[in-house]
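Please predict the structure of the following assembly.
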Amino acid sequence: MIDMTVNIGGRRLKNPVLVSSGTFGFGKEYSNFYDFNLLGAITVKGITLKPRKGNKPPRIMETSAGILNSVGLENPGLYSFIENELPFLKKYSVPIIANISGNTIEEYSLMAKELNEHVDFIELNVSCPNVKEGGITFGTKPESVYEVTREVRKVTNIPLIVKLSPNVTDIGEMALAAENAGADCISLINTLMGMAIDIYNRKPFFNNVVAGLSGPAVKPIALRMVWQVAQKVNIPIIGMGGISNWQDAIEFMMAGADAISIGTANFYNPLAPKEVLEGIKEYMIENGINDLREIKINGGVK
Amino acid sequence: MRREFCKIISNFRVANNVYKMVIESKSISKEALPGQFLHIKPSQNYDPLLRRPISICDLDQDKGGITLLYRVCGKGTRLFAEIKPGDNLDIIGPLGKGFPIFQNKKSAIIGGGIGIAPLLILSKWLKEADIYLGYKDETYMTDEFMNYSDDVCIYTESGSRGTKGYPIEALEKNINRYDIVYACGPKQMLRAIKRLCEKNLVECYLSMEERMGCGIGACLVCACESSNNDEYKKVCIDGPVFNSKEVNLDD
């Protein structure tokens, strides 16, 4: 019997395969493809206190082995999420991670307080590159990562995940700030800031000029950053960024991730999470690994 | 809606850069409705990464045949054009909301360029619609439309075939004959048709296009302006077919 469980902030996940915020809607869309109870946890579309219309199209551009997106946190707002979206997910036993973004620390705190009773984890999004206010402005300085994490920590007793941006000089410092402020877990990476130009009109392709890059193209960077963060902190790490198959997932665990999350792959292969989970299981059996933790660094990378 | 690896029956060029592909799937063809689309992975590699949304052009529900008509305009469709009969394609479908079908209503169908694709199966199901087709220069699939309607008007910008000009010019003259207009084509054309129908109080359904990600409503990238300023519609699940009053096509 192999043990694939993961412990995050005192909460046990039955396996390390998660799905990433913004790539899985509020679940419904993927329920036709497989049973959600197979997953370790579901991270729902990022929410804000008030509804957000999102950015003016175009919102997507395919790049070599990746995509640039500029959705801009379109969502129905906190209260509509609780009332209209959560009941569907609650029909499953899979743990739910709510991803929240605020304009101010007070907004983050209010949202965390309101969600405390309704979800299993809170993921602080301090790393969205597609909105002017909030999001990434909290995630690029260790002091503000520390401050927002500390304030939210005060109002919630469910495990707190801080999702970090790769658009920083030293991601280890950000991770350490989150850990020192009481975060239970670090998730990384959010999208990398990128750009595309319409050469015929001599204009940026996106109205916001910059957009978030994700997909297989970013995997080596994400892997390196997970490695860096794993050197710095002692709390669990959820690794993500371009994971497309089980081999990618194993690499992330060897770099120091306790769990992994599937993002962009959901868009082109809705069965990716299920396939990754099956692949990890087979790898463990074939290599005589009984406990997932053995894959992690020291057990994994020599 | 399901994900399936479907066998390619045929795939050939019907005009410059326009191809017709027939794939086989009993289950998808049975479920499919006019106006819906398939989301197709051009390559099992990571480049190009995303699926491509392609309208269903015709259905043979007894044999499980699905006809797709596509224009080669980028990396993904270029790969489609290279696919050989007997190969398999990774397909999700049928997706999206199709055209509402009303019998006993006098209908006009108007298409421009590759936008004619979803209108063929629609004309088959509607039986007695009047059809207006517009092309730049080279025409394609006109015989197929003639199989389903006695009234097919063909227009070309160049005047190489049919009447020189745009199909909307004829629709405008005849608009009072119709209870309902169905359209698919370039945005500029859809904008003019929307205006024409709304001015004349004719019900109008438009099939829209937008860059798409997941195709099932999760990624929120295929946003289009709606008549409600507080929200965007998503072409993949709210459409691709919209009542003209639901969408805002102004620039």
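The domain at 2-95 of chain B is CATH 2.40.30.10 (Elongation Factor Tu (Ef-tu); domain 3). The mean pLDDT of chain B is 96.
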